[in-house]
Amino acid sequence: DLILCIGVLAHAESPVALIEKIISLLRPGGTIIMESTDASHFLSPLVVLYHRLWEMFKPIGYTLNLISSVEVIEIFRQRHFKLSSIYRYNLPGFPGMDRLIPQGMLHAMVRMMYGTPNHNRNASLGKECVYLFSDNRVTGTIVS
User: Fold this and answer.
1) Tens of pLDDT along 110-123?
2) Neighbouring C-alpha atoms within 13 Å toward the C-beta of 110
């Protein structure tokens, strides 16, 4: 009925294959909540640079898949899923802050800056995207 896929898309060998597998596991009429970093966001090159610098000291052994929010939405649309909602945000500070600041405080800071999923403030500043997709495979219509 509900599948959550949080922070995995960039690490999958094939984002499209991962999405297709998730869809194949979902019951008709179900919901998918997907989270990914928008590769087309103006802050994303900084994240890529951070990861490349980090890999000089601790290689991860694979290349991150950079995928834009437009691409994620289109992949789902072509498979008869409707984007019901999107919440955009950034974690405060620099990469790795989530290891220094308690989760509750990070959550409060994100909510203060970006609001709630129903009232997403400053969304254009957020490179992290949480998507809510609804299954329209029953009708077989492609939602635009």
Assistant:
1) 999 999 999 999 99
2) 20
Q: How many CA atoms lie within 13 A of 78 on its CB side?
A: 9
Q: How many CA atoms lie within 13 A of 107 on its CB side?
A: 4
Q: Read off the pTM.
A: 0.85
What's the pLDDT score for residue 58? 81
What pLDDT sits at residue 98? 77
CB atoms under 10 Å from CB of 124, counted, come to: 8
Helices in the chain by DSSP H: which ranges?
Answer: 15-25, 44-57, 69-78, 103-114
Spatial separation of the C-alpha atoms in residues 144 and 141, rounded to whole Å: 9
Report the C-alpha gap between 131 and 142 in whole angstroms.
18
What is the C-alpha to C-alpha distance for residues 125 and 88, in angstroms, rounded to an integer?
8
Residue 48 has pLDDT above 80, yes or no: no
Residues 134, 80: Cα–Cα separation, whole Å: 9
Full DSSP string of 16-29: HHHHHHHHHHSPTT
